[in-house]
Amino acid sequence: MVTKTGEKLLYEEITYKIRKACFKTWKQFGGAFKEKVVDRALSLAFKNEGLKVENQKCINIYYDNVKVGTYIPDKIINESVLIEVKCKPYLAKEDERQFWLYLKGSKYKLGLLINFGTKRLEIKRRVYDKARQKIIRVVPRSNPRLSASTQRGFTLIELLVSIFIIVLMAGIILANYRVGGQQFALQRSANKLAQDIRRAQAMAMGAESYDCGLGWRMKGYGINLVVNNDYYLIRVRCENEANPGSYNDINIGDPVSLEGGVKILNLTNSPLNIFFYPPDPIVDLAGVNNVEITLSLETDVTKIKTIKINSAGLIEIQ
């Protein structure tokens, strides 16, 4: 998976396993237990996912690359991700600010602030990037020794040539801007679709309830896509209690539109249904291990973005 700027998501596989462990713990404990109980349960859940867990490890805090103090986070996962666990009715801005400053002062790039005290599990993802280096521009001084004869004004021909060049450059810039804008729209559409697939996955992991009606129960959540459409559907799958394996897929909300000029070019199968079933969640790709969703520009089908999902639930944008 990539970010809105087109960069690969930092520590994607590790954070996927962390989120999975958190949802498993949340499903069992909810917000009913104290922080110590949740913290111990999380450590076991992380280890069950094959993650290395360091509890209450003292790390150094730096200012201008000089050590100025220490900080003890709740957990460090795989020597890469800082974890802070809370059990509060809500996360205050001061909690987030304090966590950000701790992350900023450490040598770590990624931190997760996790709150088990609310009605729904909260996971705040924070990434700290170093500020860009300042760029110093050198502006040449004019030469005071230039004679008046060298500082002439434009002739008519020079003026016309200058206007022609400006108009030509403006046309080139405008054309490139339009193409760039379409490609950004394609990237944003791919990111939004991947986020909605992950949202359906999270709803299943959290076993979010849904009233399917008498004689039916919630089976899971997913996404429905059809080739050449410029939209997709988020769905809940309901299972007949008297006839397991008999499903009824119900749309949740309105169709989700792709950005203007973007369509679904190709799918592994059309229509394509991707569903997630609690508690792990189980990934249902209609009998295959991997599926691909290809989005393209309507005006240029060579400009594409491909979203890949495998049976382990990992989502990647190419």
What does this structure look like?
The protein has 318 residues and is an alpha+beta fold. Helix content is 30%, strand content 30%. Strands 8, 9, 10, 11, 13 and 14 form a six-stranded antiparallel β-sheet that branches. Strand 16 (304-310) and strand 17 form a beta hairpin. Helix 1 (12-29) crosses helix 2.
CATH class of the largest domain: Alpha Beta
Query: How far apart are the first and last residues' alpha carbons, in Å?
Result: 8 Å
User: H/E order of the elements?
Assistant: HHEEEEEHEEHEEEEEEEEEE
Gross geometry: flat
Helix content: 25-40%
Which key features would you list for this structure?
318 residues, alpha+beta, Trna Endonuclease, Chain: A, domain 1, minor pseudopilin epsh fold, 6-stranded antiparallel beta sheet, 4 helices, 30% helix
How are the elements arranged and paired?
Elements: H1 12-29, H2 35-48, E1 53-55, E2 59-63, E3 66-71, E4 75-77, E5 81-86, H3 93-105, E6 110-115, E7 122-127, H4 156-205, E8 216-225, E9 231-240, E10 247-251, E11 256-257, E12 262-267, E13 272-277, E14 282-284, E15 290-297, E16 304-310, E17 315-317
Parallel strand pairs: 5-6
Antiparallel strand pairs: 1-4, 2-3, 4-5, 6-7, 8-9, 8-13, 9-10, 9-11, 12-15, 13-14, 15-16, 16-17
Helix pairs in contact: 1-2
